[in-house]
Amino acid sequence: MAKPILYNVEVENFKTYAGKVMIGPFKPFMAVIGPNGSGKSNFVDAISFALGEKASKLRVKDLSDLIHGAHIGKPVSESASVTLYFKYVDTSEDASSLTPSFSIFRRVVTRTSQEYFINNGSVKPVKYLAELNALGLNIKAENFLIYQGKVETVALMDPKQRTGLFEEISGSKAFKRQYNDLKAEMLGAVESSHLAFLKQRTFRGEYQEAKQERGEVRKYELLLEELREKRVELQLFKLFCNQNGLTKLEEELSLKQTEVEGMQSDKKESEKKLKHAVKSFGTASRELAKLETEVQDKETQIKKVKLPFIKAKEEAAHLSKKLETAQSSLKQALDVQKKHLDTLKFLKEELANVRAEEQSFMESVAEESISQGRSIELEESQAKDYNELKRQAAHLSGSLRQQIESLTREHKSNLDRKENETRKCSSIKDRIAKKSLEKEECMKRCEKLSERISSNEKELQEMLAKQKTFKSSSLSCQENIASIQAELSQITAELSDAHMEKHDVNARKKKQVVVGRLKELFPGVYDRLKYLCEPVNRRYSIALTRVMGKHMNAIVVDKERTARLCIQYLKEQMLDAELFLPLDYIEVKPLQEYLRQIGGHHTHLLFDVVTYNPPEVRKAILFATRSVLVCDTPDDAMQMAFYNSQKMLTAIALDGTFYQKSGLISGGSADLARKAKQWDEKQVAQMQAKKTDLSEKLKSLLKQSRCQSELNIVDCEVKGYTSRIKLMKEDLEKSLSRIRLIDEELDKLNEAFQGCQPLLNEIEQTIEGQSDKLKTLEKKVHKLEDRVFSEFCNKIGVPNIRAYEEAGLKVYEEREKKRMEFDNRKNCIKNQLEYEKTVDTESNIKRWNDEIQNRESALTDAKKLVEDNQNAVTTLTDELKILNDAVKEKRSEVDLKEKETDKAKKDVKAIGDTIHGMQKQMLAMETSIGNLHRARRAILIHCHVEGIVLPIVEGDIRSLVPGRSDESESGSSTSASVSADSQATTSHIVIDYDSLSSNIRKLKGASLKEHETSLKENIAKLSAKIMSMGSMNLKVAEKLEETSDKLKETNSEIEDARKQARKAINAFEKIKKQRCDAFNECFDFVSNEIDVIYKQLTQSTSAMALLTAENVEEPYLGGIAYCCIAPGKPCKPMQSLSGGEKTIASIALVIALHRHGKAPCLILDEIDAALDNSNIANVARFFDTNKNQFHTIAISLQPAFYCHADALVGVTVNFREDRKGKKDPESVVFLYDLEVHDQKKN
Length: 1242
What we know:
Layout: E1 2-14, E2 17-23, E3 29-33, H1 40-50, E4 79-90, E5 101-110, E6 114-118, E7 121-123, H2 125-134, E8 145-146, H3 151-155, H4 159-170, H5 176-372, H6 380-396, H7 398-498, H8 502-521, E9 525-528, H9 529-532, E10 533-535, H10 541-548, E11 555-557, H11 560-572, E12 580-582, E13 603-605, E14 610-612, H12 618-625, E15 629-631, H13 634-641, E16 651-653, E17 658-659, E18 665-666, H14 672-676, H15 681-704, H16 708-788, H17 790-796, H18 801-838, H19 842-946, E19 952-954, H20 967-970, H21 975-987, E20 990-991, H22 998-1001, H23 1006-1029, H24 1036-1098, E21 1104-1109, E22 1120-1125, H25 1139-1157, E23 1162-1165, H26 1173-1185, E24 1192-1195, H27 1199-1202, E25 1207-1217, E26 1223-1233, H28 1234-1241
Parallel strand pairs: 3-24, 3-25, 8-23, 11-12, 15-16, 23-24
Antiparallel strand pairs: 1-2, 1-4, 4-5, 5-6, 6-7, 9-11, 10-14, 13-15, 16-17, 17-18, 19-20, 21-22, 25-26
Family: Belongs to the SMC family.
Protein name: Structural maintenance of chromosomes protein
Pfam family, one: SMC_hinge
């Protein structure tokens, strides 16, 4: 048997392959290697192109881009082509004796077209692909090809996609269209057979029913005739009662009109009295308003006067405080002056005392000298000797004497300097003490000023906060007043629009009080029906009021027993009768749901446009509204009423025009709109409560807004505090400036004082040095004197001359010392006197005296202004009190006038109420008359609609039917015109009541109602009996014959349908078997092979690969699940496997599919990208082991993979320069046979 293998591939101008390149012959296991971008994947694309692949899978947008150089706009040729050479190898035993044959497949692409060749002969694409498919190369199945980066997608296919892959490979897809057609044909045939059977069964049932109906029709006709007679009698009876009621009401209405005319004159007289009372009340009110205006003006004047009064008072208080401060400062200045004068006096007295003491000392010295009678006088001889010796000593010690005199002068000068410096230091010290005292006083003043500033600023902050509060309060009050006034105006306008009559509201309030009592006594009472529900939009109010009618004011209770207890209580309390709706007693017809689907956007069920609370009252709402349709216009309502030709619907328009099932067309009455306003009672009550609340708020805000005077007072106080703080801050700044000046002077004085001490020390050292020198020189002089006076001293008997001179010298020194003390004391006192005389205390006292005089003058003026303003305020207050007394008197007068006016209004109102009550009664009579006319018209129209023939003497009922004459115009008119129109259109119809018996015509009161009820019950019984019989088919005989003929035809149709169904089922089962066999053969083969292949690829017996069909009977209709158990791991979904595990699973599946299809080659593009070296070696070893079963061409960059190959196809890049010097890449192919290499190596 000959087996095809891929032998050679010829590429010409394809992608990166320039010119004609022959690649081959191929070994069983070929590896394509080369650097990235060299064209390895283009080699795979070339094979795919030759096998019929589309451009999208070849990584180009258009097939013309496959031509070498086309992607850069420089195609080297007009076409590109790829040729595949398939060699047929015979696998039988005698295959060696046969010459191998080849099949050549070539595909050529140009810029505008492509061609297909087989064995150099041109063929069509369909035949080309069919021949490749015969070789096992189905490009759609891809069972022999894995593109670069697509290896994992094979394992991750959707089960349905995997099923499609199996259908392509197995060939079962060829049966798919025929399978679907035959299946549809089979289902159609079976359905036709079933329909024919159902048709037969239906006709058989109709035949039996027609036989039963034929006997019931006769009984039905007799009952219809009896029902017609009873209906005619009932309508005649209603018309007769209607005529009697009209006559009676018209007579009563005429009497009421006469009575009302008489009361109108009484009302006019009362209105005249009321007019006079109102006029008097108005005059008094105006006078009161004038007085109140005067009071307000006077209050305004008081506020205006109070403002400068408070300002003057505050200014006076401020000036008083300033005066006290000035007086305190003056007192301090006087104390300083007194102290200064006392100091001067003391110093003068002290100086005088010192001089007196000095004079006394001098006198005592003189007296002592006189008393002694000598001055240590020497005798004449001694004196001569002494003088002579003294001259000799002086001559000998002249230079020394001169030195002593010089030193003495210097010593004395230094002593004077020391004394001066000492006085200067003492003066500086005194000045420092005085400046320190002055600084302390300034600092104390600054502290007091700071405290006062702090306290004033604190008070100012409080005043500012108060001012801000007043301002914000005033501003918010103004804003709130404006908003409340606007809201109050809106609510007033809304209340005036509501214009509900006061007496009606009061009556309803009384009724609601009754309901409140019932709620307190009996737990099962809910409320009146109108308070338990409301329309979703006010436009439905009139319609809802018309339909609910008397039930609007009905009281809803839970049980019948509760209603009976309530009725008993009303009777005991002698209260008005009430209507009750017990929820467990009333019978409610189910809501007709289909009505919601008709009529469009302008028609709704009345029940749907009503909201209610609590949910328990739903039954009562449904009872009152029923299945009534509400429409926007009367025309829409009439159209909906006659929507069903067999059965009239109940419909109502928004203006109250009511189309009932009985045929009555009822327009709105005069008070219908007024009654509809009951739905607004809750809102009106809320608005009235809100109006009261807003009025109270407005009054409160108006009172708050009158705090402007207080705000002005606060403003004045703020200004006063601000000015005081400013003045005190200025004074504080001056004091601080004075302290700074004092500090500067103190610094200078301290610096001067510190400079005095070193100078004193220096002078003292100089004086001590001079004293030492003087002593030394004196000793020398003394030695000379001792030598000179030695004989003289011996002569006079003294040890030395100094002893002789000691007495006189001692006295002299004592006198000099005493005189020096007196001089020092006098100098010290004189210095102090000079300093004290420089201190100026008079100017400070004068300044404070002037300041006190100015402040006393200003304070006097301020007190005078305060007194003047206070007198003005007192005067205005007295005038205001007089005006307030006048206002009280006038208000009493106005109250009296108001009471008189109210009494007159009550009289007019009482008469008006009486007239209004009578007018209401007249209106009720007119309404009743209108209702009777409308009821008469409704009865006549009902008779016409229902086909009831009345004994009419004159007139035609057909003129009353809507749509005739001008009735369509009257349907949209007001209630009054409808009533008049009803009377006009029915008055011309005269009916003969002779057919009613005389006994019936004599009935009155309750007997009339009982007779009407009896007639209705008889009609209801007949109608129920007829309804129970259902609608009768009067053509039942024809129906019976027609049904028999149809039954015969159906029998033959059933037989034909059964034959056709059996034929379709057989054909479908045949094609189904063929498709199942083809698919299962492939699936079973692959299922068996894939597990073996997976174990070989993983080199593990514990590994497992499973394919499972979701639909076992017809697997091609469901998906195919694929799962793998990797070695040493649990079973996981395919998505949870690692990249390498997914790659192994994909390779196993592709190889299994390849073995079934027996394709000539297996092409793999870099499938080892996600594999480690171990798995690469396993995969390569597998291909090497199985190379006798299939040929493999694999692109790989892993040495562990391509080292197992039989031959290598090396692909590299060669850059060719064009005419412009640009380099174009070209793929260059090398073929290397590894088997020859292995033989040489061995």
